[in-house]
Design a protein that fits this description.
- It is a single chain.
- By secondary structure, this protein is mostly helical.
- It has six helices and no strands.
- It has helices at about 15-30, 30-55, 60-80, 85-90, 95-110, 115-150.
- The longest helix is centred in the last third of the chain and has 34 residues, at about 115-150.
């Protein structure tokens, strides 16, 4: 019977790189800037979902349903609802940029006559805020990704 020296999975370069990226993502997610963006994005998404009833245009059913769905989707995507892998969830912030842009144009794009002053002002303000928060999260994801790619990729760390 022969014995072979097998290397442990703990020292595999991919495992070490994944562990390093996870630690870097944890450091990035615990910064006050990232926590502020996530909190503001969660509040923006929740407000967008409830805005038809808060701003008083809930009688406009197509826009009310549109805002409800967009608000929930925005809150889930931007608040890390798909896990704590910071660079992956915040790379999805580009999708939230599209949600913010759609929120701005929705009063004119959805079916029916829903373009009242109240709905337009509400959606434009919330859409701009959502778009800016999503761009801030995307920039944070880009900077954390560029920092990780400039490091010692695949090299074991002590």
């Amino acid at each position: 019977m022969t014995t072979s020296s097998r290397s442990s999975m703990e020292t595999h370069p991919d495992i070490l790189d994944m562990r390093r990226r996870h630690e870097m993502a944890e450091r990035a997610a615990t910064t006050s800037r990232a926590q502020t963006v996530e909190t503001m994005a969660l509040l923006t998404g929740l407000y967008l979902a409830a805005s038809p009833w808060i701003a008083g245009f809930n009688g406009l059913t197509t826009l009310a349903v549109n805002n409800l769905i967009l608000g929930i989707a925005y809150a889930v995507l931007m608040s890390g609802g798909f896990g704590r892998a910071y660079e992956r969830t915040h790379s999805m912030a580009w999708a939230c940029c599209a949600l913010g842009a759609w929120t701005i144009i929705a009063p004119w794009a959805v079916a029916g006559d829903v373009s009242t002053t109240r709905s337009i002002v509400n959606n434009v303000i919330v859409g701009v805020i959502a778009l800016l928060l999503a761009m801030a999260a995307s920039a944070a994801a880009r900077s954390s990704t560029s920092q990780s790619s400039s490091g010692t990729r695949g090299m074991p760390t002590p």
